[in-house]
Sequence to fold (109 residues):
Amino acid sequence: MPKEISLHWTIQDVYTLLMREIDEDLLLENYPHLDEKYKEETPQKRNERYTRYAKEFEVFIDRYYTLMETLGRKVNDTYRTLRKQLERSATTKDEGTAEAMLDSMLRGQ
Fold:
């Protein structure tokens, strides 16, 4: 049975990371203050802002998928590299080297 992975970040953290570069109005901590911020806004300006928000959410989704693809590639690349190093080490039957390589890979060195 696979072990559950403990993440030190949440989906809100990922959302904030990506959205901060797109539009700070759309950060979770800013939602409650938007009505006050735009209280003098005309209905036309509000519609324009909502249209902009819709486009910005599309940008967010694109960046989210890019992030997930990038993470997936990096995990796969690291796994392949580690596996090749361990296979080479196993053929030389040098356990000390295999352990050192594994330790180095896991520490990102």
Observations:
- Residues 43-92 form the longest helix (50 residues).
